[in-house]
Structures are given as structure tokens and as C-alpha cells.
Amino acid sequence: MIDLRSDTVTRPTTAMRKAMSEAEVGDDVYGEDPTVIRLQTIAAETLGTEAALFLPSGTQSNLCALLSHCERGDEYIVGQTAHTYMYEGGGAAVFGSIQPQPLDFMPDGSLDLAMVAAAIKPDDPHYARTRLLCLENTQGGKVLPLSYLVQAREFADKHGLGLHLDGARIFNASVKLGVPVTNISRHFDSVSVCLSKGLCAPVGSVLCGTGEIIGKARRWRKMLGGGMRQAGVLAAAGILSITEQVRYLQKDHDNAQLLAKALGDFPGLEIDQNAVQTNMVFARVKTGSRQALMQKMKSEGVMVSGARDTLRLVTHFDFNAEQIAPVAAAFSRAFESLN
Ligand SMILES: *Cc1c(COP(=O)(O)O)cnc(C)c1O
């Protein structure tokens, strides 16, 4: 099976398994796990933030951030298809009584700041209190321009809003731009980073941010059941995500380009080659059922994901350039058998 559904399917590397087996551990709820402490120190240093917190998932990391920025009856402004709105089970509303104000993403993955300004509620008991602007980078594989981040920071300051980044794939963004990750992270009060996507850790995310936000997030993490004990066995892998795996993301981006080109000639697929910026390829299925094509592809040994009429193919550490031709061949056979 060639699995292109997501970069979450990556398995821990050999070096990670070794580091995990040898990790020095303690009780992290008591703040005594040296490996967790080391991961948090490395994460905070790498992103240039005051503090960092290790959490079991990106969902819990984003939720802890939202709960730390906002109180009951507050509101966060977020993209209509953002992970923090669409794909986290409405957790902010369920656990925090925090109201989302979703807005459509612009084609480049940003939120139009004039639209955000218009969505900020006046100080009036009719309305929720607008407290936070939440961005996503990468968004659908697209990288937010650095100039936009400067504008977003100025905007947030002007309107007295906190600024959170769902940076699940922030390292893909920094690699694409060829800049240190701090050039992105420095604009935000908090940034959530996934270690378990293209960076290969088996589980885990780090929330990086101001000492104030991370202090609050530590309390929320405990309440949400994310206080783990000898979590150093997991953090040991996460350390290698940051120190060893980032350098391989360029390979994933190169493979996404090659894959998009290899699939570009199929008359049944429409691929915007210019939209392939990092490790994701989106292919619109021009005729017939997207679900049927996915099913056929699976029987041909290639798994992809999809929504509406569009397939998503995500390149990752466990996928290599030699597998591109077999993927194209599987599409050939799938289209033949469907026609
Ligand atoms: C994967 C992902 C998350 C968090 O996911 P978990 O599966 O909970 O770790 C958050 N935001 C984005 C954009 C993601 O892709």
C-alpha cells in the first residue's frame, strides 16, 4: 500500500524508536520528566517563545490555546475550513463556551483583515466579546506571506486581540520560505505545532507562546486529561522531530511537485500546479464520482483522501520519489476500469 492520505501516517524513525527506548523519564505532572522538559525547552528556543508545553495531540493543543486566550462568552475569529473550527469537534464551544466567528479563507489561505475588522463585535451586551484571531499556516498546503503576518500582528494589536497560529505544519511553511521558523512564530502570542505529521513522531504536539498563555494552558491540559506521567518516552521522539526531521521536509515538497506533474496529464484530473507549495497536491475529479475513484485507487494499492469533488494527496517521510510512477500507473488503471 502507498498511503498518501496524510502525513500523519508517518511512523517513528529508527532513531526515534532508539531514543524512546533509552529516554530518561519522570512524572511530568509533577514537572519532573527531564525529557519532556528538554523537548519543551528546545521547542521554545526554536520558535523563540518564552515557554512551551507538550500535549498529546494538535487538537488538544489548539483547544488549550483557545481556552487560555478566551473566557466563557468570548469569541474567536477563524477560517471557515480551519482545523480549529471545522475539524476539532466544536471543542472550544463544548468545553469553553467560546463562540467561533468563522470567515471564508482567501485563496492564499489568509483571512482578509477588512473582513475580520467588520466581524469584530462592538462592546455591547448583545454581542460576544471578540478576543482572538486564529490563523492557520500552512493552510491547505499553502504558506501565508510573511508580509501578511506583519499586518495581522499590527491588526491584532490595534484591535486588542490575541493572535494564535495553528501551525500544525509551520515547519513546512518555514522550509518553503527558506527562513527560520522564528520569522513566522514571532508574530503570534501562541503557536501550536504538530510533531506527529511530516515530522514523524508517533504522537504529540507542542504549544509555544508567552509565559502567561502557557501557564494557563498547563492548567487546561490537566483538566482535559492531557497530563501524562512518564511522557518522556514520547517527548524523546518529539525532540528528534524538531532537531532531525525538519531537514527532510524539502524532499516532501519536491516529491509533491513531481507527483503533481506526473498526474497533471490525466484528462480526468484538474490540478493547479501553482497551488502546490508544500507537501499537498489537490486534484479535482472532473467527471464521475470522487468516491468511486478513491475506491478503485485503494484496490490498486494507493490510498488518498478527499472531500467534495477533490482528492488530496500528501507526501511525507515514508513516501519516496520511486513511488510516483506506481501512483500514476494506478491512476491509469483506475480510470480505465471506471470508463
Ligand atoms: C492535524 C492538524 C491538527 C491537529 O491534529 P491532531 O490529529 O489532533 O494532532 C491541527 N491543525 C491542523 C491544520 C492539522 O492539520
Q: Main traits of this protein?
A:
binds pyridoxal-5'-phosphate; Aspartate Aminotransferase, domain 2; single chain; Aspartate Aminotransferase, domain 1; 7-stranded mixed beta sheet; 13 strands; 2 domains; 4-stranded antiparallel beta sheet; about 350 residues; alpha/beta
CATH superfamily of the largest domain: Type I PLP-dependent aspartate aminotransferase-like (Major domain)
**CATH architectural category of the largest domain:** 3-Layer(aba) Sandwich
Q: Which class best fits the helix and strand makeup?
A: alpha/beta
Number of domains: 2
The helix-strand sequence is EHHEHEHHEHEHEHHEEHHHEEHEEEH
% residues in beta strands: 15-25%
Low-pLDDT residue intervals, each spanning 5 or more residues: none
Q: Overall 3D geometry?
A: globular
> What Rg, in angstroms, do the CA atoms define?
20 Å
Any ligands, ions or cofactors bound here, and which?
Answer: pyridoxal-5'-phosphate
Residue-averaged pLDDT, rounded?
Answer: 97
Count of alpha and pi helical runs = 14
Question: Can you summarize the main beta sheet?
Answer: 7 strands, mixed
The CATH class of the largest domain is identified as: Alpha Beta
CATH topology of the largest domain: Aspartate Aminotransferase, domain 2
Across the major sheet, the strand order is 2-8-7-6-5-3-4
